[in-house]
Amino acid sequence: MSEIAERLKSIIRPENQVYKKSSVLNDVTMHYCPGCSHGVVHKLIADVIEELGIQDQTIGVSPVGCAVFAYNYIDIDWSEAAHGRAPAVATGIKRIMPEKTVFTYQGDGDLAAIGTAETMHAVNRGENIVMIFINNAIYGMTGGQMAPTTLLGQVTSTTPYGRNVDLNGYPLKITELIAQLPGAAYVTRQSVHTAGAVRKARKAIKKAFELSQKNIGTCFVEVVSTCNSGWKMTPVESNDWMVKQMFPLFPLGDLKDGGKEATEPFQMKG
Amino acid sequence: MAKVIGAVVVDAEVCKGCNLCVVSCPTQTLGLNRDVNSKGYHYSYMENPESCIGCSNCSSVCPDSCITVYRLKVE
Amino acid sequence: MGELRLMKGNEVIAEAAIRCGCDGYFGYPITPQSEVMESLMAQRPWETTGMVVLQAESEIASIHMVYGAAGCGKRVMTSSSSPGISLMAEGISYIAGSELPCVIVNVQRGGPGLGTIQPSQADYNQATKGGGHGDYSLLVLAPSSVQEMNDFVGLGFELAFKYRNPVMILADGVIGQMMEKVELMDQQPRWSDQQLKEITGSWATSGKSKDRNKHVITSLEMDSHIMEENNLRLQAKYQRMKEEDVRYELIDCEDAEYVLVAFGCAARICQKTVQLARAKGYKVGLLRPITLFPFPERVIAEMAPKIKGFLTVEFNAGQMVNDVKLAANGQTKVEYFGRMGGILPSPDEVEKALHQKLIGG
User: Fold this and answer.
1) Which positions of chain C have pLDDT values less than 50?
2) Does C169 share its domain with C287?
3) What chain B residue is nearest to A29 in terms of C-alpha separation?
4) Are B70 and A14 within 8 A, CB to CB?
């Protein structure tokens, strides 16, 4: 046996294992394109559910879009929502079973275009749910059309000459709007393009799930993500593009922390 | 002084050859194989196994959760 | 005998929901049915039975809240009126496609568009032919009294869970707004955890315990062969409804030569028309479909060769008349009479139409 093989044999032993995929993630190869951010975020959610020991009390609500099949990958009960309606579906589940942990997983088209009303009102009611928002500035599943978060000048299949403000309006910074709502408890923006970013995103998702069990309002985690097929770049180029083009408009970090707001300022006088 | 040595095991059939692990590796351990898996992807593998320090950067950025990481402290 | 009260149809829906042990109501205000949610909010059932009541931001949201909560295996409902039901069409299609039980009350008003807040029966086709996209059917109950508004809530849940299918109570502004004496049911408890496990434990999203596989509520299927199987399963279910759960009422039909066919508030007017016509010596009867889907096709087919004609009386441009024609299959004359825009004809006006269109002279 060669020296290298000998060395590997001594390292690759169960007692030396430092990372293995979560048991809450099914043994199914994901349908996502190579390098897609969805896979990383799915993994983090599964990790957090396993770590918190809440597999038997967590209900996920999957969106319309590429992540519609999230229910094939994370081994928990799921309800598949119509396009944009995940916050309403999650509201129904959480209200009828308040002891459960309920989260939505939505893309930018789902959460910030067709489902804007459901998103804003669920957060404004302070629904005790977690909302995971994948912002990749494009409609992935339908073939790379303009999304509400598409940048000005960004080429998509419905903005072939770049998004134009006169024709298409501005990119929607919905997470900033969400952070203004008194019902929001924790609002943060993360990414998963480097190992460091993944660690921070995992921490944020864990915090969101933990806080949601305390019933102190809606916990909202945006993950600035890539769609290399939609952007027509390699996964590595996509990460670079995201850092250079998206982060200036969608800066990472916490936007709100500390629970939903007190009711006094909103109370009728006398 | 203690030295850390590591190794990764890539599930070659699940890997889609996206290359994100390769660029995330601080010790240039990983590379994409010239061979392809049954889906035609150039899967990731340890090109320089002796340089792995088991840092788990690769597994954390892997979208397909196909990397298992091992680490061992040696005197 | 249960408690007797003088109540509005809409208020009775709320009272019956609480008393039958409903777990949740999600709604949005719209005339002429807003009293349903107003009554529920005034009664605060969350403090007594534990029933959830929530005002949503739209009918779209309320039906998807119903979808989420129904997926948990609980007994949940919503109510609205015609334009609101149109907004709910997406969610209703998802609920039917995912095979979830729930009760949806439509207190109809006139259309199209914003139309009028006056009573109407113009949503017959929408209710009985699906209403949203895809091949699906609702089980549709048509109350013609405040008492039936009460009775059909409990019956609706029973049928919804029997078939794992949405049930629509297709009322109208008259039945929703009028007051009548009603006998209420005694308070029933909500389903216990043990009952829930037995009744809906095999499919509900109640949290994946170690001893079972995950439950997924979805209407999506990418494999065409499986999708066709799913459609065939739905069609078999609708067939079973036709065999087991057709409901109708016959009034003076034994010797009838002419039969009026009417549902909901139209049937009440027709009941008087039957009396008026009989007093003049005409052998007139009334068939009142109680389930609009499944439609009482068989009884119409059996009657058709023995009578001189059917007259449907409906407050729309003639919708149910097509189902009666299909069932009669050319074996007798089938005519329609109706008014629109919120106008209710008098029994005399119906009798006149009966003479003009069927009896002659």
Assistant:
1) none
2) no
3) B14
4) no
